[in-house]
């Protein structure tokens, strides 16, 4: 018998000898409304069209329409801008398919569009816009989606020290995990290049959204697997 | 409307509580034990402590007719405590055969069976075997993908609902040959063998399903999920995935973790907002009716601030004029873990009891 005191109980795989053990495939939650490979091209075209439509709405000053449209057409699924989800190895089947096919910049483009709309709305108009959105069709879900974009906008990475900016010696002092983390962050930063985030605008939007939809909206965004 | 009755039992979380049929005995969970309290005037006095579980007790339920008490714990065991004539309790082990914590236990309405939810992605349906003088179990496993957080019995003691952390609320058959008589057909189906899935429901945003409950008739199911919502489902026989009506009420507050039907068109839910909320509706739609212990309607800690003397005193002592915001305006000072019916008026529940992480058991009267 192994030395009892040296055994790390938490690391023992107690399911190893369970004949009825369920395998991870069976534990994958299906039904997440994500694009299937076949639909992806159509979705991408749709998103392209969406941005044209958004620009039109915005240029005509129809900001609520623009916002509503952007939120209704929000693309879900995983793309390269969310490496942390891929890293965990716990991705869902649909999302794996989506990840392979969904153009990485699509979600970022959409994020950019939403952020543009948000900063184009003056702080005095925020409450009216929100009320219109909230009381309209499917209002609760749209406001939840808006909150997702607010958090995503806040999550846009600040400029980082790039791989090339490290001195040779300095770089090889880092552990391989640290190196990988930097390379990953760099990849994300490349994708997010050009996304303009006005944090003070996002903060006041956040305050208004929570004022209208309550703390419930925050909880829903946290529990929702459909990330933007 | 009379005032709520507040019992602060101790300063530890109560994750589940249960009253006896005459409402004079109260069982509450406390760490690895279950404590039994006896009503003494307006107070509850401790009488017995059930010891035997090695880990946190997660659920307790008193059978109203037989008085048997069932407890389950993170130590993967459940015990049935049978009252003896001399006032002591005889403990019987339930053979759960699960390799993860037991999370929730409830007696079936006919008290012949037990349903135990667990972290082993299974529900153990337990029944008593006379020959061996112990409780044995059969498992409902597939298609549960994650921990079962709660179970609820249909009035016919065969249909069972379960809420799980895989964000689904499911309805199963727990029919056991030799224990159950063949039940009359219900909206959930007829001739349903053990472990048949009679319904499966989820929300767009997902989120753990914390609580499930059948309406008094058993024809509707409600569940509370971590997306701060309550969903009421009216099923269509033979079509488990396409109910006749599915109504979701989205709350602006924090998620509910427990719910209780008070009559066919009304239910109460409570959770992280520390106050029970009443919902009313029918197949056409549901909406929030009122909050039982509404923090907004109370002046609470603000009262004393009207006095200038108090304000300056506070300024002197603490260096600020802020009122004491460490106290919630609700009676429960922390999340409500479980609500149960306490009293009935006709066919509706007129009083509910709630237990909370703050160690309180509160009896709230409801509006008629």
TrEMBL record, chain A:
Its main location: cytoplasm. Keywords: Cytoplasm, Cytoskeleton. It is found in: Cytoplasm, Cytoskeleton. GO terms for cellular component: Arp2/3 protein complex. The keyword Lipid metabolism does not apply. The keyword Chaperone does not apply. Gene3D superfamilies: Actin-related protein 2/3 complex subunit 5. One of its GO terms (biological process) is Arp2/3 complex-mediated actin nucleation. Functions as component of the Arp2/3 complex which is involved in regulation of actin polymerization and together with an activating nucleation-promoting factor (NPF) mediates the formation of branched actin networks. Arp2/3 complex plays a critical role in the control of cell morphogenesis via the modulation of cell polarity development. Belongs to the ARPC5 family. PANTHER family: ARP2/3 COMPLEX 16 KD SUBUNIT P16-ARC. This is Actin-related protein 2/3 complex subunit 5. The lineage of its organism: Eukaryota, Fungi, Dikarya, Ascomycota, Pezizomycotina.
TrEMBL record, chain B:
The keyword Cytoplasm applies. Keywords: Actin-binding, Cytoplasm, Cytoskeleton, Repeat, WD repeat. SUPFAM superfamilies: WD40 repeat-like (SSF50978). InterPro entries: ARPC1, WD40/YVTN_repeat-like_dom_sf, WD40_repeat_dom_sf, WD40_rpt. WD repeats lie at residues 50-82. SMART domains: WD40. It is found in: Cytoplasm, Cytoskeleton, Actin patch. The keyword Transmembrane does not apply. GO terms for molecular function: actin filament binding. GO terms for cellular component: actin cortical patch; Arp2/3 protein complex. GO terms for biological process: Arp2/3 complex-mediated actin nucleation. Its main location: cytoplasm. Belongs to the WD repeat ARPC1 family. Functions as component of the Arp2/3 complex which is involved in regulation of actin polymerization and together with an activating nucleation-promoting factor (NPF) mediates the formation of branched actin networks. This is Actin-related protein 2/3 complex subunit. It comes from Ascobolus immersus RN42.
